[in-house]
Design a protein that fits this description.
The structure holds two protein chains of two kinds.
Chain A (H helix, E strand, L loop, with lengths): L19 H5 L1 H4 L21 E6 L1 E2 L10 E5 L23 E4 L8 E6 L4 E2 L5 E2 L2 E7 L7 E7 L3 H5 L10 H4 L3 E7 L2 E5 L2 E2 L9 E2 L1
Parallel strand pairs in A: 1-11, 2-12, 9-10
Antiparallel strand pairs in A: 1-5, 3-4, 3-8, 6-7, 8-9, 10-11
Chain B lengths: L3 E4 L28 E2 L4 H4 L30 E10 L9 E5 L25 E5 L5 E7 L4 E3 L5 E3 L2 E7 L7 E7 L17 H5 L2 E4 L10 E4 L2 E3 L2 E3 L10
Parallel strand pairs in B: 3-12, 3-13, 10-11
Antiparallel strand pairs in B: 1-14, 3-6, 4-5, 4-9, 7-8, 9-10, 11-12
Classes of the chains: A mainly beta, B mainly beta.
């Protein structure tokens, strides 16, 4: 017999279930309990860069909006710096780069306000195009799904992005590109996530 | 001096697959394509940082944090344990959030219509940060089992939902805690989506009489393991090199 390795095994995931809001967004569940709910403000008031809004739906394999999903966003600031001690550089006061997004229970539309992130250094001297990391949990999803949102007006950067380049099929790459629109003066990116079937979003094992 | 590097690859062979047909909702909410595996970049090895300023001291006491006219009704329990990584190192400052039904199996959620009543003194959520040793604890009432529309006579075992942040977005975890000895565990298609018996056992909190408070509360111990990471003995060109 060989020696045993004394590593532990990661605790496995379970679905967040239909009532995830009770724990992670109690206001949406219909009650008020905490002094402050976490994840409501991604960018804070002082961060530089372009203020944007992101809107969309999450669809299941029958094209039906998933109304009980909870999405978390994780992004760098406009200078491409994450608010984390292992990422060199400073972020603006109040910039956390993380947020929680709850769709409307009736329509399934989600929306969140943030700022457009800058390009982030990738592996081996590469540069990643601006992107927002997303993580989805919901009833019926046994383990959280990771994906990325890229921006339609960053075509040149997207073409050299090392993660997008890993996706063999160009049509699948397009599932990660949010479409820029102007609503009056406001910049809105439209981003739908398709869990299954035609136009299925690319999900990552990170 | 080795520095922390990439996270160990997640062992998908013990994780529940996206498609677990006996859990019916997974059928239309599971991707058909395989996941695309990424090597870690800054986007994965960083994640939000939380501090005591984000939460309040009472947030981990579900017996008191929504008490209006008295304490909630139910079995008073303590849930405690450690957050460790796969290398057995404590994870300090981990944000742990929990939510659960009340003692009758009813959730305080506008979408829950189960006929068991809401408890006016029980909210059903709590949160805390692990300490220097990775230790955390909550006080609550033991949740009841409840029916759900999977088959017509499907019942969830008593469980507490658990959400954990380590130091990295790659460690993000949502799972469920079950209670030792519950006969519904073996019947549950959500539990049985996990293909590995040891991995299921790791989701079952054990009765811990040593930590129980005599004449007050029973304790259950639940350790949580997050992904570990390599030490970069040899440069693996993670970033910018």
């Amino acid at each position: 017999m060989a020696q045993e390795l004394d590593y532990l095994k990661e605790t496995v995931a379970q679905t967040a279930g239909p009532f995830v809001h009770i724990g992670l967004a109690p206001g949406a569940a219909g009650f008020d309990i905490y002094r402050q709910e976490l994840g409501r403000d991604i960018a804070g008031p002082h961060a530089g860069g372009e203020r944007i809004r992101i809107e969309g739906h999450v669809f299941d394999g029958t094209d039906t909006p998933v109304k009980d999903v909870l999405i978390e966003a994780w992004q760098a600031n406009a200078a491409g710096i994450y608010a984390h001690p292992e990422h060199a550089g400073e972020v603006e006061e109040g910039f956390r780069g993380w947020g929680r997004i709850i769709p409307d229970f009736d329509s399934g539309v989600f929306g969140f306000d943030t700022l457009k992130p800058g390009a982030v250094a990738g592996r081996s001297g590469t540069v990643m195009a601006p992107h927002i990391n997303l993580w989805l949990v919901a009833r019926g999803i046994n383990i959280g799904l990771n994906t990325r949102l890229y921006f339609s007006d960053e075509d040149a950067a997207n073409r050299t992005d090392p993660v997008l380049a890993l996706i063999e099929q160009p049509a699948r790459r397009d599932t990660l590109i949010a479409r820029r629109e102007l609503r009056g003066d406001a910049v809105v990116y439209h981003f739908d996530i398709r869990l299954q079937g035609d136009g299925e979003t690319v999900f990552f094992d990170i | 001096m080795p520095k922390p590097g990439e996270f160990y690859q997640r062992d998908r062979s013990i994780q529940p697959p996206a498609l677990a047909p006996a859990y019916k909702t997974s059928v239309t909410r599971s991707p058909n394509y395989p996941l695309l595996s990424l090597e870690n970049t800054a986007s994965e090895i960083t994640g939000p940082v939380f501090g005591q300023g984000d939460i309040d001291a009472i947030d981990n006491d579900l017996i008191k944090n929504y008490a209006h006219t008295g304490d909630p009704i139910g079995e008073r329990i303590i849930v405690h344990g450690r957050v460790l990584d796969e290398n057995r190192n404590p994870v300090k400052g981990a944000l742990i959030e929990i939510w659960q039904a009340n003692a009758g199996g009813r959730y305080r959620h506008k979408k829950d219509s189960y006929l068991a009543p809401v408890d006016p003194n029980f909210g059903g959520c709590g949160r805390t940060l692990s300490d220097e040793n990775g230790y955390y604890f909550f006080r609550t009432v033991k949740p009841g089992a409840y029916p759900w529309r999977n088959q017509v006579n499907s019942w969830r075992p008593a469980h507490i939902h658990v959400s954990v942040f380590g130091s990295a977005f790659a460690q993000r975890l949502v799972t469920q805690l079950y209670f030792e000895g519950d006969p519904l565990i073996a019947k549950c298609p959500i539990v049985n989506a996990v293909p590995d018996a040891d991995a299921i056992a790791q989701l079952i909190a054990r009765l811990d009489l040593n930590a129980s408070i005599p004449l007050d509360s029973i304790a259950y111990k639940f350790d949580i393991v997050l992904r570990g990471r390599r030490s970069t003995l040899f440069e693996n060109r993670l970033e910018g090199n």
